[in-house]
User: What shape does this take?
Amino acid sequence: MNHLLLDVNIVVDLCVARAGSPNSLAAVALAREQGFQLWVYAGSVQTLEYVVASELRYARQKVGDALSGNAVRQLARQVLGEITINCQWLAALAKEGAVFADEDPEDAQLIRSLERFTAGTARLLTRDGRMLERCGDAAITPEAFIEQSLQNPSKPKFEFIDLKTQQNAIRPQLEQNIHRVLHHGTYIMGKEVELLEAKLAAYTGAKHCITVASGTEALLISLMALGIGAGDEVITTPFTFVATAEVIVLLGAKPVFVDIEPDTCNIDARLIEVKITERTKAIMPVSLYGQPADMDEINAIAAKYNLPVIEDAAQSFGATYKGKKSCNLSTIGCTSFFPSKPLGCYGDGGAIFTDDDDIYQACREIRIHGQSRRYYHTRVGVGGRMDTLQCAIVLAKLERFDWEVEQRLALGQRYNELMDEAGVQRVQQRDDRTSVFAQYTVLVEKRSELEARFREAGIPTAVHYPVPLNEQPAYQHLCCADCTPIAQDKAQRVMSLPMGADLSLTQQSIVCQALSKLF
Amino acid sequence: MQVEVIYHHGTLTFNRPLRFRQAHFTMQVDIPEQVVETEEVSFPAFDLSLFSAEVRAEIARLEAIQRLAISQPVPKVEEETEEQRLRWAAFELRNETRREQGRDL
Assistant: This one.
């Protein structure tokens, strides 16, 4: 994304009709159309208030209306509120405070504020000759911007998962949460960790939540808490991200792969029972693409053989199964806060959910090197804590999460309708559960060709997953590829399309039109 | 009566002490022609038809805000405090300095 920081003179142009206004208005409108992020420097608020007020007073005097200082400032505030509604406030950072040695501290603040952006992605829009001189290529006039945009229009970039729009929507809370952690300084196990765990447990309805360093760590710690180790078997799906099987193998156990359903791509519960042996210690279904598997059937089989069930809900936080939240559908639920997940952080993070007090205690201890109290290690553990900063980020995202889930459900439903109209095969969703569509996945022939055509059209796609785990070099000795023919077939045909709570209806239509043209 | 005053950053100061019977009245002020800013800067104009309908609609939305700012009635507000007057003066100083440097506000 490209960024455009609006200098004070441009914001004044937008607020009050004066000589430079028409071009400033056009430049800003063009920038929005071309996907630029518009910024106004938060440190300029008071300058903006008084300069806009001053210009408004002059403009109203010209039409015979003399306003008092307070009246015109009130009007200026209202106009500024309306004009900046599509802009982001660029936070004033500490580095932008120590500018008194500069010939013009006000200018220096804006110039320094540009340094936080990746080089070449941000420019200052200004009509101020001195700023243009000082900034060089990093500043541009409205007139030059218009010329450039008309000659060489840039298209808004189509993101596979649009995290930037989400970040813009939650930026004030996000910045406040991050700054709070920087100020209290408890970077490990700070108060945000406990607060997030309480909120996540309440959200899912699970009795306990333990945040951990990643989704993979959540699975590993869960298996360790269940005492799974060498010689044990864990039944799972081969059509998933590698972490599901990786943690089993890491503990010396063996993943036993069960084929998937052809319509949902989730583990086929009807095929599980025949794979149970005396070495089986757990069943680990994956809620693939954001939709839980047949949990009632899986739980019933597990109960029959007294086995725990670990739901790998890395992709399905927020989904429901018969009215219950994913992560609270079995003995243990594990999710991931990888940035692209429906609820993600800005790094790695994950969480374990359970109603079982003993499992909870074990997971808490294993997460911190197996210690039951400081430097007293009752079991072997790992360094598996989720850091406070990441928890603070998820807390900010959680405030918007209900809306995001609703958006995902609506967009997924619309994708379904559009795909069905176009005759495109897709992963199906069952009526008794919801998917949060971590991925929206269709089934296509000649996938490489289609991917290339989408790439040419500027539409990103992805494949989840191109090779089943039992065909991967590291795991193929565990199970023959032909043993799971449905997974083998789907891996050749699945293709995921852009999806996310902030996908616009226009973008969605563009994707569907592109896809239907190729069929 | 005619008195000499000094204009300084938005405030008129009388050269001799005067007391007024009224708090509010109008008066005529002589301002030297040479200190009044008359030069209107002009900018190249772009043909609106060069822009897409979305851009034109956004321009129209912004223009509507500008028009309303000039025409909408403003409710009565309290008199300015001394602190607010000082703040105005500070920003007038900023604006005047910029004007002297030939810069836009």
